[in-house]
Give the backbone structure.
Amino acid sequence: MGYETMHGFCRTCGRASVFQREAVNHILHLLITLFLCGLWAPVWLVLVILRPSYRCTNCGR
Ligand SMILES: [Zn+2]
């Protein structure tokens, strides 16, 4: 699994930090969706909505 990174200001650390979260493997989900004639699309959507939010790489929040 890859990671998506974002730069921002962490309120817990009180300074600029790098934020990271697990990336959704869209290519894999696209292949499964095509293979199952679109039946996988709702599962894919749910995974995108429920994926973990960004975490600060310094404090973990
Ligand atoms: Zn932080």
